[in-house]
Amino acid sequence: ELTENGKEFVPVAERLLTLYREAEEIPRRKKSPLLRVSTVNSIAFYLMPAVLKKMMSDRDTCSIEFKTGRSSDIYGYVENGSVDVALVSDLLNSRRIVPFPVFREPFVFADGFAGANPSLTADKMEFLEYFLNGKKWAVIPLLVARRFKRQDVWICPMEGGPEDMTIYGLTKENRMDDQIRRFFQCVREELQMIDGIELFSGR
């Protein structure tokens, strides 16, 4: 049983507990919203650094969680809610997602300034860059070619090459909040600087 002093302390302790809980909420209130992004590898390496840097420089920015994957995996990420917005290169069927075109790019010929002698096939665009020497060439998307850091690779348009590649945007159940709109805006702003890329209107 509480003493008289103990009884008088109870309301004080309750007020202190309430104050402590309110103090704990302060950092949570100020924490920026989280945007979870996923793209296929070629987009991750050759477009996302500039896009995410632009988003992070905004005054009212959000925290960003980013991961890469194959198109089929990324559809699953968006469907199960572990990713908010994504860019993929494949158009797949989904009950909860309606993919929409964001941009289209042609394939170009990249040559290491010598005779053509293909000897390597790779599923990672960034991997091919290291093998474009004096005896190697590759057919790659325009975005990849424009982002090459090397200056000794010759890039030229192609006739009769692969069909242009369309990159699709994904959001769960057509969700489109301010942060997702800002993401697509930054993507378009970055791509506008690259001749030969066709941007689709809309989101």
What is the topology?
Layout: H1 4-30, E1 34-39, H2 41-46, H3 48-56, E2 63-68, H4 71-79, E3 85-88, E4 100-105, E5 107-111, H5 125-128, E6 137-141, H6 142-146, E7 154-157, E8 165-171, H7 178-191, E9 198-199
Parallel strand pairs: 1-2, 1-3
Antiparallel strand pairs: 3-8, 4-8, 4-9, 5-6, 5-7
Helix pairs in contact: 3-7
What's the overall geometry? elongated
Order of helices and strands: HEHHEHEEEHEHEEHE
Low-confidence stretches: none
Structural class: alpha+beta
Strand portion, in percent? 15-25%
Helix content: 25-40%
N-C termini distance: 66 Å
Rg calculated over all Cα atoms: 25 Å
Q: How are the strands of the largest sheet arranged?
A: 2-1-3-8-4-9
Average pLDDT across residues? 80
Strand count:
9
Number of H/I helices: 7
Sketch the major β-sheet.
6 strands, mixed
